[in-house]
């Protein structure tokens, strides 16, 4: 049952083909046997998990129900789990235990999920590699010399290695989709504000902030199938209220068959090159869509200028990051800022007036996307410019990425993901095959705001045409 999805495992539990205790014990045994090289599940809560599994079995025996009743899961380290540390990888915060569960954890438990522990992240979630001084480095199950991605890198690695069938990550600049792409699994970045972030605060920050609390940031599910993303979204979605009292009814998927979809394919960005292997695979998938009867296009009138999208996203993202800088460093950077739009120091120290200008530009870009999605159902594009890259833990200011022999800035990794984050759009990452080095290639399906069902349904149908998750060699 290692590679069965959450939906299949729930069905097996309902049919009494396996118990929750058996599933939990199998997951624990596999983590203990296989996680030494990967280092994905860094906070382990096995004793309480087994107690919860026993309770789930008893609940089912008495006729109780739950969408995830008895299913073992893990969650990203940034989410509070009562009684466990929430460090965000910040050294010295290991003894800070969460007093209560994050909202997403509350909803998982209310649905009957068994939380085994938490998965690794970079310091303050600000890297596309999961590494920190407390828990160390997480490696990619496909190649231990490569990163599993960030910041939900432990989450993706745990799924790819067969430790659990369901995870919950977070995404501000690709932190669900980049690890999903690097590890060959599925991840869904929900529409902005759809899933509460309360209980996902860094050490020292208030735990009581309500949704939406962080500009552009979301929490969302990760899994090994699109069906399981849909299952998890039913549990997680809804405002920061009592889930039993209020559920959010999302619009249904636009179409039920692949051939009915209108898909806009983007394989070029004016600011960053794309690995040839990713472009080739994306275009092959586009050909598959045409053969399936889809309407496939390469251009759209009114498509937002991707240069402007990247510029506005960068200013909003960096201005958010600047708020967490130490005061002295912030003051020094503000003194050096040139005031030009392309200066990172200017963006990091953006005034509120200039942030309002950027936010108004964002509103215009959102309007353009609304028009685009009047003619198209899905935008299909890369997640990242590259497949999983080798571990590199030097200062981020000196790192680069290699794209077919060409060096590009390290932070270019977020440029494709930023399209959805900046506009608050849903985006579902999917595995689309392997490159010549045997590394997963990930694509993403972006859809209209609050039409999360459409992107997930499209990806589910696409997997039937091109194949879905495949286990990494050796696992």
Write structural notes for this entry.
It is a single chain. With 475 residues, the protein is an alpha+beta fold. 36% of the residues lie in helices and 16% in strands. It has 2 domains: 6-236, Amidase signature (AS) domain (Amidase signature (AS) enzymes); 258-459, Amidase signature (AS) domain (Amidase signature (AS) enzymes, Alpha-Beta Complex), CATH 3.90.1300. It has helices spanning 6-14, 20-38, 46-61, 103-110, 153-160, 177-183, 226-236, 276-291, 306-322, 327-336, 344-348, 352-375, 418-423, 452-466; strands at 41-44, 72-76, 114-119, 131-132, 136-137, 139-140, 143-147, 166-171, 186-189, 218-223, 262-265, 295-297, 378-382, 400-403, 406-409, 427-434, 440-446. The strands form 4 sheets. The chain has an 11-stranded mixed β-sheet, sandwiched between helices. Strand 11 (262-265), helix 8 (276-291) and strand 12 (295-297) form a beta-alpha-beta unit. The protein is globular, with a radius of gyration of 21 Å. The model has no long low-confidence stretch (mean pLDDT 94).
Global mean pLDDT: 94
CATH secondary-structure class of the largest domain: Alpha Beta
Major sheet size, sense and barrel closure: 11 strands, mixed
The strand count comes to 17
Strand order of the largest sheet: 1-3-2-8-10-9-16-17-13-11-12
Q: What is the assigned CATH homologous superfamily of the largest domain?
A: Amidase signature (AS) domain
Helical content stands at 25-40%
């Amino acid at each position: 049952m290692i590679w069965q999805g959450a939906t299949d495992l729930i069905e097996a539990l309902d049919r009494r083909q396996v118990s929750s205790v058996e599933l939990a014990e199998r997951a624990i045994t596999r983590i203990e046997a296989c996680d030494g090289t990967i280092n994905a599940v860094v906070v382990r809560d096995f004793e309480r998990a087994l107690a919860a599994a026993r309770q789930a079995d008893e609940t089912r025996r008495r006729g109780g129900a739950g969408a995830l009743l008895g299913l073992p899961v893990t969650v990203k380290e940034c989410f509070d789990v009562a009684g466990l540390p929430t460090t965000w990888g910040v050294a010295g915060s290991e003894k800070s235990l969460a007093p209560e569960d994050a909202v997403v954890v509350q909803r998982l438990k209310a649905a009957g999920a068994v939380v085994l522990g938490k998965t690794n992240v970079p310091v303050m979630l600000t890297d596309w590699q999961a590494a920190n001084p407390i828990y160390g480095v997480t490696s990619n199950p496909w190649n231990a010399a490569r990163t599993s991605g960030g910041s939900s890198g432990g989450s993706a690695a745990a799924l790819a290695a067969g430790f659990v069938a369901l995870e919950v990550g977070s995404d501000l600049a690709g932190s669900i989709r980049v690890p999903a792409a690097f590890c060959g699994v599925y991840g869904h970045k929900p529409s902005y504000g759809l899933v509460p972030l309360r209980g996902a605060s860094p050490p020292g920050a208030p735990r009581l902030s309500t949704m939406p609390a962080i500009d552009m940031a979301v929490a969302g599910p990760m899994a090994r199938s699109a069906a399981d993303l849909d299952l998890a979204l039913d549990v997680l979605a809804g405002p920061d209220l009592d889930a039993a009292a209020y559920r959010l009814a999302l619009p249904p998927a636009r179409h039920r068959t692949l051939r009915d979809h209108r898909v806009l394919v983007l394989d070029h960005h004016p600011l960053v090159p794309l690995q040839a292997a990713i472009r080739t695979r994306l275009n092959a998938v586009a050909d598959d869509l045409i053969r399936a009867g889809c309407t496939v296009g390469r251009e759209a009138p009114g498509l937002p200028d991707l240069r402007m999208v990247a510029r506005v996203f960068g200013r909003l993202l960096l201005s958010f990051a600047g708020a967490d800088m130490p005061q002295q460093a912030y003051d020094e950077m503000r003194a050096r800022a040139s005031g030009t739009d392309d200066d990172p120091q200017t963006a990091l120290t953006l005034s509120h007036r200039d942030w309002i200008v950027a936010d108004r530009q964002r509103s215009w870009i959102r309007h353009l996307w609304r028009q685009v999605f009047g003619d198209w159902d899905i935008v299909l594009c890369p997640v990242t410019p590259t497949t999983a890259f080798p571990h590199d833990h030097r200062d981020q200011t000196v790192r680069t990425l290699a794209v077919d022999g060409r060096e590009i800035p390290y932070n270019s990794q977020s440029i494709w993901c930023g399209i959805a984050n900046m506009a608050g759009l849903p985006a579902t990452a999917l595995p689309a095959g392997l490159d010549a080095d045997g590394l997963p290639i990930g694509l993403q399906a972006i859809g209209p705001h609050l039409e999360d069902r459409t992107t997930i349904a499209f990806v589910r149908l696409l997997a039937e045409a091109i194949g879905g998750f495949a286990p990494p060699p050796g696992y």
